[in-house]
């Protein structure tokens, strides 16, 4: 991994290795600009880490270190304009290993912080990041301990039939944290035409409605209206994934979940519901602002990736809840109420 700081003078192999490790160590914190990465290198190796190079020669040395990480360590460092900095786009070898006791602790946290637990999203993001760096066999151990490794028998829990090949490949991709591609038949499209989805599979759970649900970050969608890139979270009913269409792709999931396109939500709960506090809703993400209004109602302001489920779950409260915004949630609730009114008006 040696380079030359001056003509004819090879730089110490270990210094080059330490520079590369300093870049890697800083990127494990998250995306970073080039200046921050160079500062991290200088903090470890001192101001002479790259000799006296500046400008284009320094940039060239930085690019050479990125190449060394890719060629010798299998770590692909790339600039991503969406985040405005460099990030770890992929890795061929594990970045972390943990003793069994720590694996058991991660499994305990995964089981303890269920959707209704405080800071659930943040805790699972931490767990997912650490697990993504583990060797595959250690990931499988954690999933087994945490009860996250469903068997073929659990497929039969669904009230609709799930094709065995769909279940097998979906589990394999989800456990290995690899991207997936499949054809999907959605009940929301009246034309009955299949849509192809290319996704990052993040969550697999069994819903209270009796179905296995895959929550994925959709990178690409192709259908009768042509291809597009949603780059947002979708819920997929596993039974609607078409047999024979599932393909496990080689690209790994990123260590940090994509932000997606969170929608603003504002709703109020009557005193009869919120008098003794507000339950945490699994559909809400990020910071939630809760305030008491002059009329005694409690206002909740937050964001969500799941307008569909949130709208239907808020209707559960009946006239003890009123939705004020954002636009998509309010439109969804109004549509549901209007459709219900039509049904009951016609039946009266």
Number of strands: 14
Strand residue percentage: 25-35%
The largest sheet has its strands arranged as: 9-8-7-6-10
Give the termini separation. 80 Å
Radius of gyration: 25 Å
Structural class call reads alpha+beta
CATH architecture of the largest domain: Roll
Task: List unreliable stretches of 5+ residues.
Answer: 5-10
The overall pLDDT, averaged over residues, is 87
CATH class of the largest domain: Mainly Beta
CATH fold annotation of the largest domain: SH3 type barrels
Helix percentage range? 25-40%
Order of helices and strands: EEHHEHEEHHHHHEEEEEEHEEHEH
InterPro entries: CBASS_pafABC_assoc_protein
Task: Provide an overview of this structure.
By secondary structure, this protein is of the alpha+beta class. It has 4 domains: 4-91, Arc Repressor Mutant, subunit A (Orthogonal Bundle); 100-145, no CATH class; 161-252, SH3 type barrels (Roll), CATH 2.30.30; 263-347. It is built from 11 helices and 14 strands. The strands form 4 sheets. A 5-stranded antiparallel sheet has the order 9-8-7-6-10, covered by helices on one side. Strand 4 and strand 5 form a beta hairpin. Helix 1 packs across helix 3, helix 4 (100-112) crosses helix 6 and helix 10 crosses helix 11.
């Amino acid at each position: 991994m040696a380079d030359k700081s001056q003509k004819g003078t090879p730089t110490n192999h270990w210094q080059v290795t330490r520079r590369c490790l300093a870049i890697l160590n800083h990127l494990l914190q998250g995306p970073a600009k080039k200046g921050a990465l160079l500062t991290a290198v200088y903090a470890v190796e001192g101001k002479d880490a790259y000799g006296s190079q500046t400008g284009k020669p320094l940039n060239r040395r930085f690019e050479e270190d990125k190449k060394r990480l890719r060629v010798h360590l299998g770590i692909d460092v790339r600039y991503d304009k969406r985040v405005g900095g460099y990030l770890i786009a992929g890795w061929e070898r594990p970045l972390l290993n943990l003793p069994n006791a720590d694996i058991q602790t991660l499994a305990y946290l995964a089981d303890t912080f269920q959707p209704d637990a405080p800071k659930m999203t943040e805790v699972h993001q931490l767990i997912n990041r650490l697990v993504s760096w583990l060797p595959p066999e250690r990931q499988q151990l954690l999933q087994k301990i945490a009860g996250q490794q469903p068997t073929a028998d659990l497929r039969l829990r669904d009230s609709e039939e799930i094709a065995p090949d769909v279940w097998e490949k979906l589990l394999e991709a989800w456990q290995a944290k690899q991207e997936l591609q499949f054809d999907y038949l959605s009940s929301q499209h009246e034309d009955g035409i299949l849509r192809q989805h290319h996704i990052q599979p993040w969550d697999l759970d069994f819903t209270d409605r009796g179905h296995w649900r895959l929550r994925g970050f959709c990178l690409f969608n192709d259908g009768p209206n042509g291809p597009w890139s949603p780059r947002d979270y979708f819920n997929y009913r596993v039974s609607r994934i078409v047999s024979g269409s599932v393909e496990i792709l080689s690209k790994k999931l990123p260590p940090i979940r994509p932000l997606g396109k969170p929608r603003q939500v504002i709703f109020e709960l009557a005193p009869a519901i919120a008098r003794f506090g507000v339950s945490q809703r699994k559909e809400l993400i990020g910071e939630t602002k809760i305030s008491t209004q002059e009329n005694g109602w409690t206002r909740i302001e937050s964001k969500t990736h799941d307008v569909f489920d949130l709208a239907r779950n808020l209707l559960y409260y009946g006239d003890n809840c009123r939705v004020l915004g954002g636009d998509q949630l309010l439109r969804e609730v109004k549509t549901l109420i209007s459709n219900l009114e039509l049904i009951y008006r016609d039946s009266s």
